[in-house]
Amino acid sequence: MPLDTSTYSLGLLRVDGRRWNELRRIHAQIRTQAAADGSSYLEMGHTKVMCVVTGPTEPGPRRGGNVGSAGGAGAASGGQHKDAEVLVNIVIAGFSSVDRKRRGKGDKRTLEMQSTVANALAASLHIHLFPHSQITISLHVLSQDGSLLAALINAATLACVDAGIPMTDYVAACTAGSTSTYAANDESADPLLDLNHQEEQELPGLTVATLGETDRVAVLVCESRVQVSRLEGMLAVGVDGCKQVREILDRVVREKGRKMIQEGTVERGTGLNDMDVD
Amino acid sequence: MPREAEPSLNEREFVLKALQENTRLDGRELDQYRPLELTFGDQYGVADVTLGKTRVLAKASAEVTVPYTDRPLDGIFNIATELSPMTSPAFEVNRPTETEVLISRLLEKTVRRSGALDTESLCLVAGQKCWSIRVDVHVLSHDGNLIDAACFAVVAALRHFRKPDTSMEGGVLTVYTPAEREPVPLSWLHSPFCITWSFFGEEGEIALLDATWLEEQVRVGSCTISLNKHGEICQIAKLGGTPVEAVALLQCTNVALSRAKDFSAFLDRKLAEDAKRRDKGGLLAELSAENDR
């Protein structure tokens, strides 16, 4: 289904009525599963992801032949290490996309996403505090509408916050794209923020994840052909979008914290004097 | 599963300290590649790439098969990557490690998804017969930077490859042997090359190209950029690792573009040399009964 670019140039609106620099609605919750160490639920537009974090725990038996949970952390992967191992397992539900496609356990795209999420979080989590242990992140994709990797990273970050694992900062992710295809070499191409499925199919785009409020890029994945000159604009918009996403994630966490204090689930800490609880 | 021995703490410290002072253990500049060598086999479509002590062999082959039902007008193109125990005890047969999956995914995205090979030209009879092109990548020796070497080998092998000529007459498909008709090259659209940056230091502020295995073991992150000589990015993969400044990544991309142009020129030269070596002076010279005495 080709994107009607004529509509774009007329009203400067995209297929779903957004402007170039607008994110889709992000709705997030943390502590959705009471029994889990950490859990979250995140919607970015129609992309819906659930995440459960278990750990840090003692490492289970070695995963023999269990390809589904690959994704060791950074340099350490094997039996005994001085850092905690971050394992990520992604399950993409059959009903999540329009065409019900069955993905096997060894699907390379899923494996790549698992290892990306694991490595991105391992760099932000203070895994050196938990030697000889493992942190398991299970992600469930309930609905897909573009920016899947970004949603997975955001959900995993929130769940890690909920699990109380010390980390440097939020790893916030979003996508950015460019309005014309690689063939058209027009310089007037606008960058776009937060692509949906239709735009992702049609236009060049990339996924960016940054650490906190800095401009430091933890994940950068581009899977389409695009002119080098276009990269700078897309990256700038993407990094800016990540900062907006970080604000939203931060708000979700603070909101939940406030609620928990009000309900008396947790004691009000000493460092929270500046926080408006009532 | 045996594990690759990790470098000792002293070794690690030594490499990193040296890098802080802009020195690499083998005396290269930070953005300098090891000597790249490419040899073609006697057969068409065999490329042997050596990058320092890393050695990768790629072999392209073609056979006639039935196309996929959902893509009746396209041929089939596959890249199979194999890391055998010969390379390192950490690799096992039939159990792809994470490295192997990531390499094959990267090659797939760089060469196949970027449309380097025109798959529509592989179609022979719509929905019934098509060429299936397969590239087997064998890693013979692993001393870091497998991705760049493997990608170069795949592109070289495919550009060197010739598939048997065919003709369609009255609904009869004929595949000619090399003796009957000269094999034809694939319809090749552009040549993408992978350039991998490795990052070191607390904030990933030291970036270098073509890391050796030791450097790869102590790095904090990496970013693989695939480009062709026209300045088109085919793929970027920075899959986690220590966060790096966005501006630094843009600079890396610009340097990568010039490297990709170098690679492209090098490959063109090698292909021209090989074509000259194979050229016996046309059919007349080949059929001549005269012998050198």
TrEMBL record, chain A:
GO terms for biological process: nuclear mRNA surveillance; poly(A)-dependent snoRNA 3'-end processing; rRNA catabolic process; U4 snRNA 3'-end processing. GO terms for molecular function: RNA binding. Pfam families: RNase_PH. Residues 55-77 are annotated as: Disordered. One of its GO terms (cellular component) is nuclear exosome (RNase complex). InterPro entries: ExoRNase_PH_dom1 (IPR001247), ExoRNase_PH_dom2_sf (IPR036345), PNPase/RNase_PH_dom_sf (IPR027408), Ribosomal_Su5_D2-typ_SF (IPR020568), RNase_PH (IPR050080). Residues 22-166 form the Exoribonuclease phosphorolytic domain. Residues 62-77 have a biased composition (Gly residues). It comes from the Eukaryota. Gene3D superfamilies: GHMP Kinase, N-terminal domain. Signal peptide: none annotated. Belongs to the RNase PH family. This is 3' exoribonuclease family, domain 1-domain-containing protein. It comes from Podospora australis.
Automatic annotation (TrEMBL), chain B:
Keywords: Cytoplasm, Exosome, Nucleus, Ribonucleoprotein, Ribosomal protein, RNA-binding, rRNA processing. Belongs to the RNase PH family. GO terms for cellular component: cytoplasmic exosome (RNase complex); nuclear exosome (RNase complex); nucleolus; ribosome. The keyword NAD does not apply. It comes from the Eukaryota. PANTHER family: EXOSOME COMPLEX COMPONENT RRP45, EXOSOME COMPLEX EXONUCLEASE RIBOSOMAL RNA PROCESSING PROTEIN. Gene3D superfamilies: GHMP Kinase, N-terminal domain. The keyword rRNA processing applies. Residues 32-164, 191-258 form the Exoribonuclease phosphorolytic domain. It is found in: Cytoplasm; Nucleus, Nucleolus. One of its GO terms (biological process) is TRAMP-dependent tRNA surveillance pathway. It comes from Podospora australis. This is Exosome complex component RRP45. SUPFAM superfamilies: Ribonuclease PH domain 2-like, Ribosomal protein S5 domain 2-like. Transmembrane segments: none annotated. InterPro entries: ExoRNase_PH_dom1 (IPR001247), ExoRNase_PH_dom2 (IPR015847), ExoRNase_PH_dom2_sf (IPR036345), Exosome_comp_Rrp42_subfam (IPR050590), PNPase/RNase_PH_dom_sf (IPR027408), Ribosomal_Su5_D2-typ_SF (IPR020568), Rrp45 (IPR033100). GO terms for molecular function: mRNA 3'-UTR AU-rich region binding.
